[in-house]
Amino acid sequence: GRGGQGGGSRPGGAGRGDNRGSRDSDFNRNNNSGAGAGAKRKENDFGRRFDEGGRGGPRKGKGGKNGKGRSNLPPREKIDNTPKKIIVRGEMTVGDLAKLLHKDAAEVIKKLFMMGVMATINQDLDMDTILLVAGEFNVETEVKIVVEDTNFETIEENDEEDALISRPPVVTIMGHVDHGKTTLLDAIRETQVASGEAGGITQHIGAYQVEVHGKKITFLDTPGHEAFTTMRARGAQVTDITILVVAADDGVMPQTVEAINHAKAANVPIIVAVNKIDKPGANPDKVKQELTEYGLVQESWGGDTIFVELSAKQRINLEGLLEMILLVSEVNDYKANPDKRARGTVIEAELDKGKGPIARILVQNGTLKVGDAFVAGDCFGRIRAMTNDRGRRVKEVGPSTPVEITGLTEVPQAGDPFMVFEDERKAREIADKRSIKTRQDTMKSNQKVTLDDLFNKIKEGEIKDLNVILKADVQGSLEALKGSLEKIDIEGVRVKTIHSGVGAITESDISLALASAAIVIGFNVRPEPRAAATAEQEKVDVRLHRIIYKVIEEIEQAMKGMLDPVFKEKIIGHAEVRETFKVSKVGTIAGCMITDGKVARNAEVRLVRGGVVVFEGKIDSLKRFKDDAKEVSEGYECGITLEKFNDLQQGDVLEAFIMESVER
């Protein structure tokens, strides 16, 4: 404002832009009242003008010295320029909301105060509060949430059809140990070397490409299906096709079934490679027959699964397998857009002594170039160098291509999403935000499915199926348990067995449970130590039982929301049987070493042999040398006899536990 002199007949002539009225801060308003006439006016005059919304109200003639010349017109009404509707794109501060509503921040703070919220001008407001405040001012709101780059893996970029080109399929090889996965991978690599491909595939970068009839196929050399599932649990969908390797002389084994369930859970087409057909005991038809039980039926039998009979070792029919991969790829028509920023997934990563952090990544969309700034998981960097699967330096790579990159600040994790950003500053900012979010998510309670909160989730409609993984000591009890559980139907929620098998609960079972939000049920079996540790860390609900109806009862009650107070067993220690002595009138004494924790005289024990529970009961006597002991701690030897059980063997493990009541 230029002060009040010579305001002429312009209403509110003390300064320009007065129509902004209430949007100006008090500070500006005080300053704008000007040093001219404003300074000579009486205080009460000033107050009155202030209330009228202009600087001096409507007046004519000379700047109205001492208030003379003021017309007696009624005070001018405030112009209400509150918008009818605002667009909300996410959380914002009080100040930002005030601007959007064309209001003074003080008015918004006052409204919040009336709603019981104490806020300052720079305070962040959540979506609900923003909508409530807007409603208080009778302003409509339209919510348009912008997906922040921070969650870039969730951003779905739609491409024009003509921008898409065919890309190589990405293939993962899975199967039982010793059925020839590695041999098959090596055999496929070597065909490339033999076909005059100079240099061959020397780099171990967790993935490699081969060319068949001028078309490329990318193979992921992941260490088994555990890695595959771990990546899926982290939200990474990298595989297009799964090759299930089954030995013709061995048939379907436990890990074969696991691999099938992992591939089905990821919704990936399966090609069955019946390997070792050159072996004397090979029986491919038996394998095909066994696989029909798991829904894999070959086309000639009326199914839709492709079976290829081959021998990786003798290099028989490898060409047939590669052609089938191309056929499946053609049917599914895998496409990507190379003309945009690169996105992909980290396959492996490590700290190299010479190069620093390195990551092997699969580019899934766009083109990756040397010099690009990127974020991988919670890490960022700029690509210093890229090496392909043949150990050659490359300047840029397109979709479905595996490369090893250097230029990272830290080592990311397998399965982390990868994306290129405009510059390193932006990449750093996003990596920092992601890192904070990861920490916060870790601190929050893990949103895993547990029996205790099952009923609430059913009520809220969050769960339609209860996924379970079943492990039992023998096939008979496994089938009985599976059949009984699948009959349960409460409020439209059913039990869905996504994997079942015989033997101890493995780390692979826990990974699958984590990826599929499942509960693990062990019947007469125990988790392996690493599996137990992973379950504890990832908060996967593992339930162990010895009586079938108890399992059914517990699941039914959980689904109805009426679980009784729980007694949870607490494992206090393990003892390994080193020697056994038979003593008449006493029975078998086990000479044991306490390997961890302690064994107490009043604890219950279970005897585990090869991952299977052989006996569960009480300790009859616990001795150190010839003296009775109340408890024996880790690192000490002791003699143990069990109540009504004598079949103790060298190598058995005694697990001591007590029952504790747990608050719900």
Automatic annotation (TrEMBL):
<dbReference type="InterPro" id="IPR027417">
    <property type="entry name" value="P-loop_NTPase"/>
</dbReference>
<keyword id="KW-0648">Protein biosynthesis</keyword>
<dbReference type="Pfam" id="PF04760">
    <property type="entry name" value="IF2_N"/>
</dbReference>
<dbReference type="Pfam" id="PF11987">
    <property type="entry name" value="IF-2"/>
</dbReference>
<feature type="domain" description="Tr-type G">
    <location>
        <begin position="166"/>
        <end position="333"/>
    </location>
</feature>
<dbReference type="InterPro" id="IPR036925">
    <property type="entry name" value="TIF_IF2_dom3_sf"/>
</dbReference>
<dbReference type="InterPro" id="IPR004161">
    <property type="entry name" value="EFTu-like_2"/>
</dbReference>
<protein>
    <recommendedName>
        <fullName>Translation initiation factor IF-2</fullName>
    </recommendedName>
</protein>
<dbReference type="InterPro" id="IPR023115">
    <property type="entry name" value="TIF_IF2_dom3"/>
</dbReference>
<comment type="similarity">
    <text>Belongs to the TRAFAC class translation factor GTPase superfamily. Classic translation factor GTPase family. IF-2 subfamily.</text>
</comment>
<dbReference type="Pfam" id="PF00009">
    <property type="entry name" value="GTP_EFTU"/>
</dbReference>
<keyword id="KW-0342">GTP-binding</keyword>
<feature type="compositionally biased region" description="Basic and acidic residues">
    <location>
        <begin position="40"/>
        <end position="54"/>
    </location>
</feature>
<dbReference type="InterPro" id="IPR000178">
    <property type="entry name" value="TF_IF2_bacterial-like"/>
</dbReference>
<keyword id="KW-0963">Cytoplasm</keyword>
<dbReference type="GO" id="GO:0003924">
    <property type="term" value="F:GTPase activity"/>
</dbReference>
<dbReference type="Pfam" id="PF03144">
    <property type="entry name" value="GTP_EFTU_D2"/>
</dbReference>
<feature type="region of interest" description="Disordered">
    <location>
        <begin position="1"/>
        <end position="83"/>
    </location>
</feature>
<dbReference type="InterPro" id="IPR009000">
    <property type="entry name" value="Transl_B-barrel_sf"/>
</dbReference>
<dbReference type="InterPro" id="IPR015760">
    <property type="entry name" value="TIF_IF2"/>
</dbReference>
<keyword id="KW-0547">Nucleotide-binding</keyword>
<dbReference type="GO" id="GO:0005829">
    <property type="term" value="C:cytosol"/>
</dbReference>
<dbReference type="GO" id="GO:0005525">
    <property type="term" value="F:GTP binding"/>
</dbReference>
<dbReference type="InterPro" id="IPR053905">
    <property type="entry name" value="EF-G-like_DII"/>
</dbReference>
<feature type="compositionally biased region" description="Gly residues">
    <location>
        <begin position="1"/>
        <end position="16"/>
    </location>
</feature>
<dbReference type="Pfam" id="PF22042">
    <property type="entry name" value="EF-G_D2"/>
</dbReference>
<dbReference type="InterPro" id="IPR044145">
    <property type="entry name" value="IF2_II"/>
</dbReference>
<dbReference type="InterPro" id="IPR005225">
    <property type="entry name" value="Small_GTP-bd"/>
</dbReference>
<keyword id="KW-0396">Initiation factor</keyword>
<dbReference type="GO" id="GO:0003743">
    <property type="term" value="F:translation initiation factor activity"/>
</dbReference>
<feature type="compositionally biased region" description="Basic and acidic residues">
    <location>
        <begin position="17"/>
        <end position="27"/>
    </location>
</feature>
<feature type="compositionally biased region" description="Basic residues">
    <location>
        <begin position="57"/>
        <end position="68"/>
    </location>
</feature>
<comment type="function">
    <text>One of the essential components for the initiation of protein synthesis. Protects formylmethionyl-tRNA from spontaneous hydrolysis and promotes its binding to the 30S ribosomal subunits. Also involved in the hydrolysis of GTP during the formation of the 70S ribosomal complex.</text>
</comment>
<dbReference type="InterPro" id="IPR006847">
    <property type="entry name" value="IF2_N"/>
</dbReference>
<dbReference type="InterPro" id="IPR000795">
    <property type="entry name" value="T_Tr_GTP-bd_dom"/>
</dbReference>
